[in-house]
Amino acid sequence: MEVFMNLNEFAAQYYGAYGDMVHKPVPLDAKETALVLIDVQDCLTKDYYEEAWPKFGFDPEMLKPILEELDSYISGTLENIGKILTKCREKGIRPIHIKIEAYLPDAADTGRLHACAGMKYPPGMREGNFLPVAQPLDDEIILKKTCSGIHVGTPIDRILRNLGVKNVLVVGFYTDQCVSSSVRDLADLGYATEIIDDAIGALSKERHEYALQGIRKIYAASENTEALLNRLDNML
User: Are the C-beta atoms of 171 and 222 separated by less than 8 Å?
Assistant: First the structure.
């Protein structure tokens, strides 16, 4: 019988074994699989934070090395998102793009949580623009939300069911916020769900890793970009 040093060690192995039994990489069938891209927009960029963070009392000079680290980290995640999006389009897997943006010009319809965080993005604001790496094509679905979860904030469940989608690949931001909320709901609503570990990100690598512990192999299967691209290449 295996001896565990502490409860945390046991929990890690327990959830790992459970996840290996329950959560397998989702089937890649073009008709039944969708790629959901969450909040891949301008409010992730270094330029945005250079303007936003001083409003909360942070010294711009002290932020420079932190912003450089953030930019490097986010850039790698965005690169992976771009590769996955390109390959999914090539294989006929439908992308669904979701972003944070209000409907009213004064953003009065923004949810309380986002409003308190200063995330009031009326239509046309730079913060609501999709980043070039994930720019939707004319025939791709775009949904808007003013809260964290895609199911609370958009009609995506009805859209996925109307499309006959059973399997969902998830990429985007932030792992510990909108991604986590969305993945949990996807799983509870019965979708076979998979997160691409290095194509989702948080404000820091540490927050990303902590958040992964709460969703990976519990609510969703997971793999990295390279593994997913290899499977996509081998789709029939």
Answer: no
Class of 26-233 in CATH: alpha beta
Spell out the per-residue pLDDT of the chain, length 236, in tens: 555 668 877 777 777 766 676 678 999 999 999 999 999 999 888 888 888 778 778 887 888 888 889 889 999 999 999 999 999 999 999 999 999 999 999 999 999 999 998 889 999 999 999 999 999 999 999 999 999 999 999 999 999 999 999 999 999 999 999 999 999 999 999 999 999 999 999 999 999 999 999 999 899 999 999 999 999 999 87
